């Protein structure tokens, strides 16, 4: 065989490098090919200058000798793929009976002898039935973590470290903790110990020393870093529970919370499981007014914390307090979308009366507010819920009277929170429930409104807001779209598009960019820039300052009615397209207007109208 290969070299049919590689892929050798995968060298045919290779589904596949030298990679006999082919029963026995030896074999089969748990898991899984697998894999991971030959990372995609000399994991964790200097390194080290706390069940003395060190760290940092000190106190309690240690601590989480000035910010910054524990600590720290404190931050909570907080109130027979707070948020139109999504999902009996037409109006206000915060872009989970959930509006409006529904329809028609097609779909659902509003939708107003001048269909905007939209469009076209194209190409190179999460994410980003680009192009096409210098002050018009007074209390209010994309509620700046803007537009001094408010409709009288002269932000 070597002589025949030497003849090829002498005849210059292969070069020296190819000759050296061919010496390694003799008949019987296992190989891999980048396209055809794992194979077995069957024979050489020197008459035709070909190598015959058994690939899966391609037995005795012929390949030119020089191409074989360039494209085939030889595998050693102890490579996992070679073992799988030559001794499958022995490999299965090894995987099932000696996970350490099997992992060693696997790692040595990877380039640089390095692989992650995510790469290793499917190779283990091959030797078990689906019913066996979950239990087996849990045990395998636990055994490997205890094995001093390996360092098993916490992340699934981080590499496993195979050591030359066995190291005791427990000693390694203790050493890392002892060497940690500063709050953050110590926090990292203690969380690693907590994750592998089972290793310390026979080392209670070591844990007691760690607890004392934690207390010292809390004491040093409580004045300057209250959040981390509170989290560290919670971790300390988690360690004590895991170890079955009962002892009193001076700086408990509920004691530390007495120093907190912003509970909402603190809770939001913690992982969800620890944030849940913190809720109970707040109850202990403030036994007399814990409810009021939690209600103040309720609207800022997200995810499972909302449900956990409500459960705390319900367990204490205080669900009615939550109802009152939510009803207040509905009346004020200030409810945040995570709270609405939670209510829509769980529909608790104690809170069911919230689902009325006022709640529907509050949902529209929330969507408009969030759209403004996203610089005019529609979308989000709440937006999708209203559009996609066919029963959401139905459940809310079914108990409303016809006049309430008409008010809601009017607000929905002028709301910028939905694209036109989606808005028509929502209105169509309402018509099925209340056929009487059909004429209102077709005519867009009743007879009294028809006599009044209509707001222009063109989008009147300030020059500054138009420039912001143009800059956003330019960024999408010249920066974000080209970057997205590169992301798609890179993701394609990872192969198997059906399971390629990077590719799916890049394509979804492409759809979002295309939709936003279309929205901006349409808006800019409809937009007409104004500097408000020639505003008509004989009536409320775009670019005017309107002073009104409450018809009952006499309280004065000032509104700056500006362009479609202008809004700054703190400074009284509103868009002419908002509900309040539409209620004021074209009114004259001395006339009455009905404005939406927390308590319902607020009647006001127009006192003065002047031109807006300040520079638009």
Question: What descriptive keywords fit this protein?
Answer:
55% helix, 14 strands, extended, 617 residues, five-stranded mixed sheet, Arc Repressor Mutant, subunit A, five-stranded antiparallel sheet, alpha+beta, SH3 type barrels
Give helix % range.
40-55%
Strand order, main sheet: write it out.
4-3-2-1-5
The fraction of residues in strands falls at 5-15%
Q: What oligomeric state do these chains adopt?
A: single chain
- Count of DSSP strands: 14
Mean pLDDT: 84
Largest sheet: 5 strands, antiparallel
- What is the count of helical runs? 29
Domain tally:
5
Regions with pLDDT < 50 over 5+ consecutive residues? 444-456
Estimated radius of gyration? 35 Å
**What overall geometry do the principal axes of the alpha carbons give?**
extended
* N-end to C-end Cα span: 83 Å
- Computed structural class: alpha+beta
Write the topology of this structure:
Blueprint: H1 2-10, H2 16-24, E1 30-33, E2 37-45, E3 50-55, E4 58-64, H3 65-71, E5 73-75, H4 80-86, H5 88-97, H6 99-109, H7 117-125, H8 130-146, E6 150-151, E7 161-162, H9 169-179, H10 183-195, H11 204-221, H12 226-243, H13 253-256, H14 263-269, H15 272-285, H16 290-297, H17 304-315, H18 319-332, H19 337-346, H20 357-373, H21 381-388, H22 392-397, H23 402-414, H24 420-433, H25 438-443, H26 447-450, E8 459-462, H27 463-492, H28 501-526, E9 527-530, E10 544-550, E11 556-562, E12 573-575, H29 579-584, E13 592-597, E14 600-611
Parallel strand pairs: 8-9, 11-12
Antiparallel strand pairs: 1-2, 1-5, 2-3, 3-4, 6-7, 10-11, 10-14, 13-14
């Amino acid at each position: 065989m070597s002589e025949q290969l030497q003849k090829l070299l002498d005849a210059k049919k292969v070069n020296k490098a190819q000759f050296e590689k061919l010496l390694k892929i003799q008949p019987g050798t296992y190989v891999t090919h980048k396209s055809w995968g794992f194979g077995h060298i069957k024979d050489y045919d020197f008459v035709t200058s070909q190598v015959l290779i058994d690939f899966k589904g391609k037995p005795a596949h012929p390949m030119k000798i020089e191409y074989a030298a360039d494209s085939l990679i030889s595998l050693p006999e102890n490579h996992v793929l070679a073992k799988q082919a030559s001794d499958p029963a022995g490999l299965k026995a090894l995987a099932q009976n000696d996970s350490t030896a099997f992992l060693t074999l696997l790692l040595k089969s990877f380039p640089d002898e390095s692989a992650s748990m995510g790469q290793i898991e499917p190779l283990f899984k091959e030797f078990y039935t689906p019913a066996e697998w979950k239990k087996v894999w849990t045990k395998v991971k636990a055994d490997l973590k205890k094995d001093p030959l390996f360092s098993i990372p916490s992340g699934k995609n981080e590499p496993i470290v195979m050591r030359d000399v066995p190291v005791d994991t427990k000693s390694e964790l203790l050493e890392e903790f002892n060497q940690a200097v500063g709050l953050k390194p110590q926090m990292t080290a203690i969380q690693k110990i907590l994750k592998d706390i089972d290793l310390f069940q026979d080392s209670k003395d070591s844990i007691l020393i760690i607890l004392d060190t934690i207390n010292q760290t809390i004491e040093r940092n409580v004045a300057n870093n209250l959040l981390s000190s509170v989290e560290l106190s919670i971790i300390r309690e988690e360690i004590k529970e895991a170890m079955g240690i009962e002892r009193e601590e001076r700086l408990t989480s509920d004691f530390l919370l007495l120093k907190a000035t912003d509970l909402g910010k603190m809770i939001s910054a913690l992982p969800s499981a620890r944030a849940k524990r913190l809720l109970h600590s707040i109850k202990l720290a403030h036994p007399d007014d814990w409810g009021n404190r939690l209600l103040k931050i309720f609207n800022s909570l997200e995810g499972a914390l909302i449900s956990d907080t409500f459960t705390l109130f319900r367990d204490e027979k205080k669900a009615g307090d939550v109802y009152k707070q939510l009803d207040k948020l509905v009346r004020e139109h200030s409810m945040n979308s995570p709270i609405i999504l939670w209510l829509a999902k769980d529909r608790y009996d104690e809170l069911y009366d919230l689902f009325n037409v006022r709640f529907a109006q509050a949902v529209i206000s929330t969507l408009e507010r969030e759209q403004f915060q996203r610089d005019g872009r529609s979308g989000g989970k709440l937006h999708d819920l209203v559009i996609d959930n066919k029963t959401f509006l139905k459940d809310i409006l079914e108990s409303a009277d016809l006049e309430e529904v008409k008010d809601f329809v009017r607000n929905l028609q002028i709301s910028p929170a939905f694209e036109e097609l989606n808005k028509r779909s929502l209105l169509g659902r309402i018509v099925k429930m209340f056929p009487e509003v059909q004429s209102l939708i077709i005519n867009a107003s009743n007879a009294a409104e028809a006599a009044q001048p209509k707001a222009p269909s063109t989008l009147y905007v300030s020059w500054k807001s138009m420039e912001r939209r143009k800059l956003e469009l330019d960024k999408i076209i010249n920066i974000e779209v080209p970057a997205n194209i590169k992301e798609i190409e890179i993701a394609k190179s990872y192969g198997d598009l059906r399971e390629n999460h990077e590719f799916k994410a890049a394509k979804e980003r492409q759809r979002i960019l295309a939709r936003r680009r279309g929205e901006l192009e349409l808006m800019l096409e409809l937009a007409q820039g104004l500097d408000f210098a020639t505003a008509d002050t004989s009536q409320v018009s775009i670019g005017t300052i309107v002073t009104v007074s409450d018809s009952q209390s006499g309280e004065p209010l000032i509104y700056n009615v500006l362009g479609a994309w202008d809004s700054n509620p703190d400074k009284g700046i509103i868009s002419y397209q908002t509900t309040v803007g539409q209620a004021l537009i074209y009114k004259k001094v001395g006339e009455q207007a009905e404005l939406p408010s927390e308590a319902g409709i607020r009647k006001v009288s127009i006192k003065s109208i002047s031109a807006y002269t300040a520079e638009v932000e």
